[in-house]
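Please check this one:

***
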Amino acid sequence: MNPRSKNLIGLAIALAIFALAAQWWMHWPRQSLQRFISLARDGSYAEASALLDGSGSIESADGGGLRILDTHGREVLLPPNQQRFVAGEAVEKRLPPRQFADRLFGRDRAALTALGPSTDGVAEVPPVTIYLSVERGRLAIESVE
């Protein structure tokens, strides 16, 4: 094998490694958000809270409720009958679209909505939406409405 072939093989390997690293970097924020959402849906609130950067929390409260604290210190208490979480396109359409700079710097956003009981498709209590953000793997509850 001549030196030129070795250089081309080395370049191809380096490009493949770079492509894999770039792929991981682009998908890392979304995977972090999806992990948090999955844990919250499953009721694993302690594990979900462990993913947060420390400025917010989600934890079980007395009487089966759920206490959610956002980065601004606002606390919301969800009753036991309002802990059915929904996430997806319908909820996330209210968020600004992800820009190139967000991908470059490892940022993303998501929303998670807690629904309460309903009668004939009409909610008995207003839904609570949790807005999440992630930057380079550090997850935060931006606000709760």
